[in-house]
Design brief:
It contains 14 helices and five strands. By secondary structure, it is α+β, with helices and mostly antiparallel strands. Helix 2 packs across helix 4 and helix 4 packs across helix 5. The longest helix has 20 residues. It is elongated and about 75 Å long. About 25% of the residues are buried.
């Protein structure tokens, strides 16, 4: 886990914010719920510093210095132990790492690869027969409706969840790829989107993992990557091919989720009457 180099003024400010965050978390924990002994009365709510140090297996003096915002080195392993001791959730753990100048831990990154929520699936199902998916920041398919599977002519249930990534499937899955028309335009476009998204989140190790996999499994991706093209996500018209109906032209519409974690809803609407009729024939 690499440490992020910050300007001196920013690092000092972050140390003070880190100290404030640690004190706030400690003071909001219930020592009884955590099974801590209560041999003497507590003057302040929450855990004592020595109790956090004990739970995290660090020195009391060292932890006190950390809460005081002193300039000390903190390893990613120690930060993870402190986050566990303070009962931090995923967002709080990421915040803790950012303030300490570390990239987000891989364990947190892995946990965020979640499935669609119940409300998200209701939304997807209500949009049927319009093809729709919910996609993560990393282009992972979190949720989908039956119309999307009909459009791509692929049953996503048969694909391992770890492989349900729109860019990965576009470059490595023959049947998925067959549904994509205008590949000479769309494939470079996907690579440019990938590069843009990755550049905005260099502290997230999942991007490098996905990049290495694409480079290893797709010669076409390897050829396109050096172009260094940059593209933003936008609504666009796409053409799809289905063996039963031929070509369809649909407009991709994007909506982002409220938590601002990068998840977005993609809904595909027919762009003309012929495409609407073709879509109905495969989704009815």
């Amino acid at each position: 886990m690499s440490e992020i180099q910050l300007p001196a003024s920013t690092a000092q400010k972050n140390r003070q914010l880190l100290a404030t965050f640690l004190r706030s978390r400690r003071e909001n924990l219930d020592p009884i719920r955590l099974g801590m002994p209560h041999h003497r009365p507590r003057r302040t709510p929450g855990l004592r510093r020595e109790e956090v140090a004990q739970l995290a297996d660090v020195g009391v003096t060292w932890y006190t210095w950390l809460e005081q915002g002193r300039e000390i080195n903190v390893s990613a392993k120690t930060l993870s132990a402190i986050a566990t001791a303070l009962q931090c959730n995923e967002a709080e753990t990421q915040h803790l790492f950012q303030l300490a100048g570390h990239a987000s831990p891989a364990s947190v990154a892995a946990k965020t690869c979640a499935t669609v929520s119940a409300h998200g699936q209701i939304l997807l199902d209500s949009l049927n027969p319009l093809p729709a998916i919910i996609q993560s920041l990393h282009f992972d398919i979190i949720g989908y409706n039956p119309a999307w599977c009909r459009l791509m002519n692929v049953e996503l249930e048969t694909i391992p969840q770890s492989d349900r990534n729109c860019i990965l499937l576009a470059f490595t899955h023959p049947q998925w790829r067959a549904a994509i028309a205008d590949q000479d335009v769309l494939m470079p476009h996907m690579v440019a989107l990938f590069r843009t998204q990755m550049a905005d989140h260099l502290d997230d190790p999942r991007w490098q993992v996905l990049l290495e996999r694409l480079m290893a499994e797709s010669e076409e991706f390897r050829d396109l990557w050096p172009r260094y093209e940059i593209r933003a996500i936008d609504n666009q018209v796409k053409r799809f091919y289905h063996p039963r109906t031929g070509m369809m032209t649909l407009r991709q519409n994007n909506w982002w989720s409220a938590p601002r974690n990068g998840d977005r809803l993609l809904v595909y609407i027919p762009n003309d009457e012929e495409s609407a009729a073709a879509l109905r024939s495969i989704t009815d």
